[in-house]
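User: Fold this, then the next.

Assistant: Folding the first:
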Amino acid sequence: MPYSPREKSRLRENVYIRRSTGDDISDQEVVIRKEIRKYALRDEENSFYFYEDVEELSEEPHRHRIEFDEHIQILEEVYNTHVLTTPNSRFHRLPLCVKKVPCEESIERFFEMMKDVPSLFSSDKNTLPVLAFMGHAGYSRTSFAMILGTLVMAHKVGYPQQANEPSKPFDPESRNYEMCEFWVVEELCRILPNGQQLKKEVDTVVDLLGDMSHLRKEVVSAKQKLDNIQEDFQIYGRSAKEYYLEKSLKHLEQYCYLIIINGYLHEQFPRMFRQSFTSWMLQRSEIYRVFAQADSVERMFNPELILKGVRFLVADDYLGLDVLSSQREVKVSNFRRVPGLPVYGMSQPNSEGLAKVVKTLVGPKHNHSSIHSFNLRGEVVVEFEGCTYTPRELSGLTKNIVIPGCTCQEIENWEKTLKKEILKSHNTLQVYQDVTDPRESKAFTEGMTVQEIYENQQKDTPNLYYYRFPNRSPETMLSEQDIDSIVGVITGLDDIYTDEDGPALLFNCQTGKSVSTVAMAIAGLLIWHKKGFPYGTKLGEQERISVPQAEYTKGEFSCVMLLVRRLPKGSQVKREVDLMLDKCSETMTPMHYHLREIIFSTYNKIKSAKTPEESTVLRFQSLSYLERYIYLILINSYLHMERATSWKKPFSQWMKEIGHRLGVYNILNNLDFGELENTEARTMGTIKERWCYQYPQRGTIRGTLV
């Protein structure tokens, strides 16, 4: 009888050992066997208790006599006995996670196993190996592995005829969910070469092996159960909506993963997997961005939630936001400038604030020839009667509701819809002017979207230009494509090089602190590359820092220094970034915010975290800040290396070509704080873990997957 260790409070759930190999688990089984025997020998009858029916729990647990090690066999011993007596057979252990998609290491180990099967790569299509997969119940993980194995076989003998039939293009207005035509699948097919054909081939294999567990039907079934919930209830001690959303997302991500793997097989099977799966994935980092957007519930933007008082409008400006006391002068919080550069940052402006800022920048005090304003917010923002608001949940009034993967055009359309519906309803709404105060009743008669605020100001200031690049959260780095766009806008400004003052580059996020400062640093570095670097970037020109553990305050973490060693003139590149961050911080002193120093200060908070959830959040934040710092160093290296061609090659392309050769993605995929922590504490180190991270205690689920 096979047994597996489980938590006493969760007898139906297996214990998963994170990122473990087959050898790791076998070692754990040996330890468990020793523990069982040790406790059994303490009993008068040498007995130990085992559960055999966790569903009924009748007459459980059962006593079994355990006197010698041979009374318990680990899995490796069971199968190796048969392997040794059966010619040409092999036993491999491939640990797959129950609740999530497999990690890259597991898939890579599978392909390494396939390399050792000579008949798989022979020209004779009749010599096929037999692949037998076994899981706990032979259901979910087993079915996934069977599809994976069949995809490999299909690349040797060919796909069934129906895989070659033409596929219909995606129709966003009429999605066929039975065929898994979800938004995330559409995005994945868009970025992968021949994406729709890859999907068609996977669909054929899924249908072929769908007798016991049909992957697409599993997604749709969980989605339908989620859609049918009118009033939420508890299932297995948790919200039913969360349970079925998590279940549908798990199967949907597995489905997406199979499409990705099929793309890898098309390229690497003829080459006998010369490039590892992990390396192949890292070279296509945009795939991780798509995975991070799989939870598309918020894309079902519904203004009725505001009108019915389910969600509330919360004012962007609040007591304590304006740390830099700029409201008195320009009516916008945290307005500031990078010293010596035409680069500015601020919080979200309303109509009056934007007018004041524009007047200040083009007036005699600054005399800028034009203003280029960049909005980096990834949530819906509308202005009503001179105050900007964003929708939020009552349970998370300080947490923005970010819509994953939204484009500038999509978010502006949602803002127009929200404004239109609120003004049309003539309802009195409950709004929060400050989350620390009771909500107030407001009847709005006029409103504007953010784009309309700028369009209105452009009537008086024709040389004002507006751009929007929605960002996921304050901690995360701008996407490589957004960096391309920002660099493209700035390098396309002729007067930035000829005019002493030049155009003003104005960046804003909600608070004017985090994301806007990152963008300001990028813009400042680019201007330095055209106008020359100031004092402080060469050897011997830096200020000495005399504080405990100064090397970490200066950003000299092991992964950063590894990157510096690999980059051409890496130390110089880092010094330039450090000076730029110091310059950005000079005008932010009251905020106590420095893009480099916040890495170590956030990491130190982990030690005093009161709960595991708080510790995980702080670790995610500290590693995201570290990743952001590494990206700034990479951007500066890109600016150096591509300067001769005036940066015609986009940063995203440079990362794929040059960055990949330098092993940049390997560094980003193994982020940690080196000697500061033990191996067990190193979570969130992979790109996938960070980019796909969801904060705990998400708001109530208000929609469904699309």
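Now the next one, as you asked:
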Amino acid sequence: MLHLLVIFATTLLGCFAARAELNWDVGYVYGSRDDFTYRRAIGVNGELPFPPVHVTQGDTLVINVHNSLNVPTSIHVHGLLNNGTNYYDGPDMVTQCGIPPGESFTYVLETKNQFGTFWIHGHTRHQEADGFYTPLIIHSRKQPVIVYDEELHMTFEDWYTGEFYVRQAYIDSLDDARTLTPYYSKALINGYDGNKTAPITFVPGKRYRLRIICMSINNWFKFRIPGHKMTVIEADGVESMPLEVDGLSMGPGQRYSVIVTAHNSAELNYIYNVTSYSRFITDQQGLQPIVYTGLIKYKDGAPTKNIPVVSDDQLVWPEEAQLQAYDKQPRLPVDRQIELTVKRFSNIHYVPFSALGSSLYKSVLVPTLYTALSMGELAKNSSVYGPQTNAYVLKHLEVVEIVINNPAIEDHTFHFHGHNVQVIETGPFGNSSTIDREPVPRILSGPWPMWRDTVQVRAFEFIRVRFRADNPGVWFLHCHLAVHMYNGLAVVLIEAPDVLQQRQSVPEKMVEMCKRQGIHTQGNGAGNQGFDLSGLPPAVYPPS
């Protein structure tokens, strides 16, 4: 179902901060979301999809989570900065221990000055890959970049025939992964089979805000409404200077708001196009890519306008470095640069892996936040976190520039927990001729770089981003493709651990939740003192 919400700006501006409380019973549900496969998935209160969450800027969002699964769980609000409450960020064994089966835990999430388009998803055992996610809209208290009449949201998902861990266990068991038949997905639009999504109704002359959320786990989505222009006004919960485009190209985790003005006449209906595709599996007719179409309805029974097909390279799409931030903050001056390069390799069974740091990311024996809080002065030494975490220790308030190079054939989106980052530059990296793709041009941002929390780094490209280390905590930086995250494409940023120790302490209930599972809550990554990391499983390093 398409969720439609009429927003009266004057009402929002007059609201006071409130406390919104939700009770979520996270459990297994069964059904056929794609009208093709009946399977087990993860829902909330017996529903999948489960309702989107709406709050207002400044509100406190309280989510009481009860775990009815047979494995631990946790939640992450994708894009929420959690400044001062790092322990509510959600990734299992990074900032917390998972909520054990049969137990409950309450997240107290402060929206503070943030507003825009976000989403909430599981962050333990890749449960977002099995349906555990929903949109979060934080409505602004001020007038938007462009005033509109109504708003609606659209969600894009990829949906597979089996549960994520079942698929991965099968791949891991193969003697020769080259024999694997690729897993192809279906696409869901607004939670249901992309071919059966309800029409979008436009009233002539009205101006609409479309909030579009890519909640996929592996696939990219392209979205267009031929015969209509879109004006981008927001990306990843941050307002942008208006930019007129023909369509959107979105990777896993990314969000946009666009303004679309309906035509003045209701004599014709229109068709929107949604294309779902992946860069790491082979194209196959009817399976990859897949184009879904839906109706923009002006009037029941009206004929559909016939619009000639135009190739993508003749259209305008928003580029990562092209958008400009509405707040007009200039480029940050750099104090320190970290360069990360995606390293792709295979094991002896030809299962592919990708590393972002020196090794494949693997969970250690103590939540990394707890190590940062308990190791005193040694918390400023990256070695105490274990080589499996790829930890980088940042100084308080320094401006960090991160360059991510991708000399491989796969596209990625990288999500920064705890920060929005300025997108400074994108460009070519490596030899794109191996995939028969023309080298992309270098694109340097304008004077007011866009802030984003999830950035695309496409095959044989690089991206340069900057942020100020003003949010002490332990923050995950990882590829948002579930299969890449599962295989270790991540690092951890340890931000100002000395300041963190002065300002934050983990709620006792979270500590006790770890202890009941036999998980250490103090010490280095192995739960020991000093640099004694005995007990950790061996780190896996890419071949030199």
